[in-house]
Amino acid sequence: MDILNTEIQFLPGVGPKRAALLAKELGIITYNDMLHTFPFRYVDRTNIQNIAEIVPTMAYVQIKGTVTAKNIVGEHRKSRLVVTVRDNTGSMELVFFQAIKWMNDKIRIGDEYIIFGKPSAFNGIINMVHPELESPSGKALPYGSSLIGVYPSTEKLKKAGITNKVFTKLMASLLSIAGNRIQENIPDYLISRCGLIPRKEALKSIHFPSGQAALEKASRRLKFEELFFLQLSLLKQRYVRMHEGEGIRMPAVGADFNRCYKALPFDLTGAQKRVIREIRDDMKSGRQMNRLLQGDVGSGKTLVALMSALIAIGNGFQACIMAPTEVLAQQHFNNLKKYLAPLSPVDWTETEADGGFGIALLTGSSKAKQRRMIDRGLRDGMIKLIVGTHALIEDNVVFRSLGLAVIDEQHRFGVDQRSRLWNKTGGGTPPHILVMTATPIPRTLAMTLYGDLEVSVIDELPPGRKPVKTIHATETKRAAMYNFIREQIALGRQVFIVYPLIFESEKMDYANLEKGYEAVTEAFPFPKYRTAIVHGKQSNEEKSSNMKAFADGRADILVATSVIEVGVDVPNATVMVIESAERFGLSQLHQLRGRVGRGSQNSYCILMTDFKISRESKKRIDLMCSTEDGFILAEEDMKMRGPGDIEGTMQSGMPVDLKIASLGRDGSLLEFARKTAREVLSTDPHLEMESNSLLLRSLASYREVPTDYSKIS
């Protein structure tokens, strides 16, 4: 047995209780998990700061001071130990709420200590809560390290005595037991070609670096390793699909495509035409299409999806379009019916028919009778195009001949869910896959999220679309903002007012929304003004009913949470007010802004914030006011906040869990790793050569249960 698979409870100093806590708090179950829990920051052990220089905003600092006083303050559970330490520049307090008696016995007045912790302030006095103390003559760190790693932690771990100091000791113990058993996972020829240090050395140095140069070499090796195997996996899958994967050949365009295209009341943009050509080339190639369509809000992706579906239908196949919410699915269905008018479509959601161009809508709210009709229409091929939600991937939904699956806002669906659409062809040739997103994705992230997909970008908005004027306002401007809304409503326009929803405090946000709704209805009283409300706690029917009232013009104002971020299309809505805008990320703000400006009138986005906001929030708000380019905003968002949720979402469907590499910060290393992976596969696409046998084994080990997603978006 590989020693690194040993359960962490057997590491000296851990035991069952601590093991359970490490598993729950940090996901550490085995020696290997612990070895790959990396410091997120390092403190130079040789760098001692003066107490007079310390301010509460600093990160972890290290001081050397002599204890001049100590005192247990308070009684029973509310007691705390307060220790005063002094150096030749000033004094500060150390505060302990746990193990008070033990700490009081251990710390002696007159002794000097090296103190490591996070400074804070209480009643204007600088202090450190639960810092780590050791004698200046204490034991040196292992492997000649001069840097102390600061590891991820939680309050529960600290309360259980697993401080950073204890964690560091456990790591040293682990390396002394298992360090020499660390196996290499990259062949020698690549280590040499890429200028990497051995894996064993890298893992020792990342935890106990002898200095900055050693840390940088270790970091580069471990980051490269993660990014390289990620790209190797994606590119290998892509090779298999492009060179060996069979796809449905669709040589014709078909009469339905031509009739709809000629009847469009407007010209397609050059970008839309280019993308349709790219999709058409894929569909007639004989290989399975697996293409990502990126397009900013309002760029016309739905129409491209329809024209692609008509190509499949023109070749005798069925097509489906899957959306993440019922509201969006309903909206797509209504829009597609308009575009399909020249074909006199038959709506199988309402009636069965033995001829004509059958279409249907299937969601969780579809009635049993509708489901029976839709089931018959799909099985016998009378329904040519179906729009739906997750309901489409249920086992009882059976197509006669699915040729194209379009997945909208694909990041809302897990890869396993999407794979079920692939199996809808009954084990035969898989359908062509087109995934769409209105969330602009930075290039380095797209390279990883969609490294095995071909990518099309609609980088042009339809003519006549006016830019949305974006304004930043604080509470002092609320009265003026309300007056502006009244003017817009008097002109016959409609208004969105959006409140943030942050899941950690759903109750508070719900109360916030309710309060906001009350304030809005007070400022805009019925019957002169009609206000609807939409939020996640409503039933689907209630949500759809209120959204429909707004979309149909029966409500002037829609008060909502960011549930309306994706998909709601109301051309008459010209004002988007975003309350507490500082609580949203750039991409989300951009998505919300995209809900207005869909008609020919002037449109406005008003970003309401507190008067005092952080520097980073101010930068986000200023960027929103300065550009409407979603790709510029996405790049800036990733620079400012890191890949964040997108990277987290990506992890669930990717073969490599990124522990140290960052898609936001390590873009150039990612490109180098991708180039290296491509070079390896260009001569050995199946990794069959003896020199690559180690790569094949290492790649297989990244998934305990390998799943072949090579044909799935």
TrEMBL record:
Q: Which SUPFAM superfamilies match?
A: Nucleic acid-binding proteins, P-loop containing nucleoside triphosphate hydrolases
The Helicase ATP-binding domain covers 282-458
**Per UniProt, which keywords does this protein have?**
ATP-binding, DNA damage, DNA recombination, DNA repair, DNA-binding, Helicase, Hydrolase, Isomerase, Nucleotide-binding
Is Thylakoid found in the keyword set? no
Q: What residue ranges are annotated as transmembrane?
A: none
Question: What EC number(s) would the UniProt record show?
Answer: 5.6.2.4
For this protein, the record's InterPro entries field holds: ATP-dep_DNA_helicase_RecG, DEAD/DEAH_box_helicase_dom, Helicase_ATP-bd, Helicase_C-like, NA-bd_OB-fold, P-loop_NTPase, RecG/Mfd, RecG_dom3_C
Catalytic activity entry: ATP + H2O = ADP + phosphate + H(+); Couples ATP hydrolysis with the unwinding of duplex DNA by translocating in the 3'-5' direction
What start-end ranges are recorded for coiled-coil regions in this protein?
none
Provide a Gene Ontology MF annotation, just one: DNA binding
Q: Which GO terms describe its biological process?
A: DNA recombination; DNA repair
In terms of NCBIfam families, this protein maps to: PRK10917.1-3, PRK10917.2-2, recG
Q: Which PANTHER family does the record match to this protein?
A: ATP-DEPENDENT DNA HELICASE HOMOLOG RECG, CHLOROPLASTIC (PTHR47964)
Name of the protein in its database record: ATP-dependent DNA helicase RecG
